[in-house]
Amino acid sequence: MSPLRLLADNDTLVERFRRVRNRSTALCTHLSVEDMMVQSMPDASPAKWHLAHTTWFFEQFVLGADAGYRPAHPEWHYLFNSYYQSVGPMHARPQRGLLSRPGVAQVLDYRARVDEAVSERLLSGIDASMLAVVELGLEHEQQHQELLLTDIKHAFASNPLLPAYIARLTPAESQATASLDFIAGREGIIEIGHDGQGFAFDNESPRHRALLHPHALANRLVTNAEYAAFVHDGGYREPSLWLSEGWDTVRRENWCRPLYWQDDLASEFTLAGVQPIDPHAPVCHVSYFEADAFARWAGARLPTEAEWESAAAGLPVQGNLLDEQAFHPRAAARELGPLQMFGDVWEWTASPYVSYPGFRPLAGALGEYNGKFMCGQWVLRGGSCVTPREHVRASYRNFFPPHARWQFMGIRLGQDR
């Protein structure tokens, strides 16, 4: 490769690095210093911590690969390590909201210093192995951009004043929902998993064969109106619809509606505060337990991840994603074919989060990224309205425990044929 071509490639990488990193800080422009410290539950993290942790990742795994590098704040390693046990101990996740120091200004200065050092490193030239680490760091940053928004939404919803992150939701074109139809899926032996083109997390590999039985998937996501019918029909009071652990959760947590629906069942909390529920928009902030119960009530089931990926493969990654700045799910267009496969809400599948045949985690500390969480969680597909467009793809496997619902999580129905 010529030096000119190498320089051009490095310039492009630096531009991407700066663009992704700048988006994280831009998402915080709507937040006060006080907002950026709040932690509303153990599963969430303060916005300040998200900014610091993603910076720590680049400092630890990119700059720290140089034996001569000396961090300006080595004591912060303990504060902003998340779960990488092999690189040292970390502050307890449920107590991240107690970290009033370092302050927001110090964290932003930390980001600026690390960004400058990483940019210089990229411009000086890196090998293929370090390029893979940088790309992983950028994808990791984009995951935290989504988490930053869902965590602050939960925090604001926990405030009796129900404050808004943005002044208003971007209005969508008024339209009725596309009619609910089922599209027959492929049958027989197919291949799923990442095809080797571009970036993928290790849990998307290796590509392998899967057997699909006769089935069909809904052409669009379940709407608020359809889910409201389940609520009004007593779905949360009928134990026969629920998995045993799900029914225990419903009773213990007093669930009777999706997470952010208000008591009147006509309004919901959004990133723009309390807004009327759009009956045509996808229902969101429901757990796996709720998705499974609704599917059973509707005489259907949830898709498997192989069925979902088979339907999504080859489709362009377009839809209501973070790039549209809608910050909330929108009604499906009245079009033919599978709709809303990407964006709006992450779609629960009937598949447990387990390794693919022949899976091997990354070597070293970065091998802790995905593999060690393959227990007690379920796969979601497709991205949401706060997922960056360039971050998601047909083979992408998100995962959460079955009771989780603070993410933008929704439902697509499947059925046997």
TrEMBL record:
Cite the Pfam families for this sequence.
DinB_2 (PF12867), FGE-sulfatase (PF03781)
Q: Which GO terms describe its biological process?
A: ergothioneine biosynthetic process
Domain (DinB-like): residue spans on this chain: 17-146
What are the entry keywords? Iron, Oxidoreductase
- Source organism's superkingdom? Bacteria
Instruction: Using the record's annotation, list all stretches that form the Sulfatase-modifying factor enzyme-like domain.
Output: 188-315, 334-413
Q: In which pathway does this enzyme or protein participate?
A: Amino-acid biosynthesis; ergothioneine biosynthesis
By its UniProt entry, which InterPro entries does this protein fall under? CTDL_fold, DinB-like, DinB/YfiT-like, EgtB, Sulfatase_Mod_Factor_Kinase, SUMF_dom, SUMF_sf
List the PANTHER family hit by this protein, alphabetically: HERCYNINE OXYGENASE (PTHR23150:SF36), SULFATASE MODIFYING FACTOR 1, 2 (PTHR23150)
NCBIfam families attached here? egtB_TIGR03440
**What name does this protein carry?**
Ergothioneine biosynthesis protein EgtB
Q: Which organism is it from?
A: Dyella soli
